[in-house]
Write a structure and sequence with these properties.
The protein is an alpha/beta fold. It is built from 14 helices and 17 strands. The chain has three domains: 149 residues, 3-Layer(aba) Sandwich (Rossmann fold); 162 residues, Dihydrodipicolinate Reductase, domain 2 (2-Layer Sandwich); 84 residues, Alpha-Beta Plaits. The strands form two sheets. Strands 7, 8, 9, 10, 11, 12, 13, 14, 15, 16 and 17 form an eleven-stranded mixed β-sheet that branches.
């Protein structure tokens, strides 16, 4: 290991970057040599920050021969991809919190890192302050993990928690979340499932030991969830959560997707509220283990970044630094489509208050090999229509979609309000 200070370059000085600078001040063996920012003159909440270490050109950092570690916390793929590729070619170790970059360009970066014998660490990219990648690579390395169920986005979990507790609409809670800073002005990346999809793509690749293609992950957000859905789910013994799911089928194919699910109230994920994140892994021989904690924020995310930095610092100078953290996946996952998946389903239907309408619904479902597990009717409104909630037994999604199409064309059915998958 080097006896002199390890020199670090930081790309990005937003919320996470600021947290990284603040936590690194207590480490005398690490020197932040350069920080790339958009605006050098911006006032920053960092004591004794020397203006001389700031630059608006991040390529100064990745091309600086004295810098050992490049920490990237700007997000997105452009210019992050070219910056990290240049840094790796210059044989610098990488710490990144960039989930989108890893999901879209991870394979190329990891292959290049192996070629150049440098390490990429990315604990902060998956679940903020929750340690998950290092445990999978070390303590759980002897396990064959076959399922991941996770809440990986604090914004959507906050919105759904508030909708359930206060019995209010999605639109109302979103406005509140934006005021509190939990949701962006444009919340699309969170509420439509993109953020969770980026994270589960990398997490599934590591845990299932197969390369998962982000472009083949089914994504569905929370914008269609209503206050009524939350209340009906509660009556039936469930909570609604945005779940990032990855599991191996019996024939070793990968089922990877992000969408809302009815989670049984007794399940540990049902207790994850507010902006908290959680990852549940199932495997052999460990069984079922749960990780939970803050999934975002300045210091939780900086905690994961710092852990990665210190891991690299502890081994700098080694001919083969942190070999267990290298990416050695050679197999591309054979991912199944959402139509091929098997689930239980919650279906909310508005129907005319005609005699035999529930029987009609049951018959149509039966036509498509779908058995009903429970039926709940919620009164009659002034239009003489009834809200009918059904929970199905396990069915193939393609069959469910065909049944929904037939229901929509039936004269007794006014509207299919929602279709939500139910956790096993």
């Amino acid at each position: 290991m080097k006896s002199e200070k390890v020199k670090l370059g930081l790309i990005g000085l937003g919320t996470v970057g600021t947290g990284v600078v603040k936590v690194l001040k207590d480490y005398d063996n690490i020197e932040i040599k350069k920080i790339a920012v958009k605006n050098i003159n911006k006032k920053r909440d960092i004591e004794n920050l020397a203006p001389s270490i700031l630059t608006t050109d991040p390529f100064e950092i990745v091309n600086d021969p004295e810098i050992d570690i490049v920490v990237e916390v700007i997000g997105g793929t452009d210019p992050a991809f070219e910056l990290l590729k240049t840094a790796i070619n210059n044989k610098k170790h990488i710490v990144t919190a960039n989930k989108e970059l890893l999901a879209k360009k991870g394979q190329e970066l990891f292959n290049l890192a192996n070629e150049k014998n440098v390490t990429i660490l990315y604990e902060a990219a998956i679940a903020g302050g929750i340690p998950i990648i290092m445990p999978i690579k070390t303590t759980l390395a002897g396990n064959k993990i076959h399922k991941i169920e996770a809440i990986l986005n604090g914004t959507t979990n906050y919105i759904l928690t508030k909708m359930e507790k206060d019995n209010v609409s999605y639109e109302e809670v979103l406005k509140e979340a934006q005021k509190l800073g939990y949701a962006e002005t444009d919340p699309t990346g969170d509420v439509e499932g993109f953020d969770s999809a980026y994270k589960i793509a990398t997490l599934a690749t590591i845990a299932l030991n197969q390369r998962v293609d982000i472009n083949k992950i089914y994504k569905e957000g929370i914008t269609k969830i209503s206050a009524n859905d939350m209340q009906f789910a509660k009556e039936l013994g469930y909570k609604i959560k945005l779940i990032a799911l990855a599991k191996l089928t019996d024939d070793n194919k990968a089922d990877v997707r992000v969408h809302p699910m009815l989670v049984p109230q007794k399940d540990c994920l049902a207790s994850i509220n507010g902006v908290t994140n959680s990852v549940v892994l199932e495997g052999f021989p460990v069984g079922r283990v749960m990780f939970a904690g803050p999934g975002a924020g300045m210091f939780p995310t900086a905690s994961s970044v710092l852990g990665d930095i210190l891991a690299i610092v502890s081994g700098i100078g080694s001919d083969n630094l942190l070999p267990f953290m290298k990416c050695n996946h050679t197999k591309n996952a054979q991912q199944i489509s959402i139509e091929q998946t098997t689930n239980r389903y919650y279906i909310s239907i508005t129907a005319n208050n005609n005699p035999g309408v529930i029987g009609t619904i049951g018959k149509i479902c039966g036509n498509h090999n779908i058995n009903l597990a429970s039926v709940l009717q919620k009164g009659i409104d002034k239009e003489n229509t009834a809200r009918i909630i059904i929970i199905t037994e396990e069915s193939i999604e393609e069959n469910i979609n065909n049944a929904i199409d037939e229901l929509k064309n039936n004269s007794s059915i006014v509207k299919i309000n929602n279709l939500i998958r139910v956790m096993e």
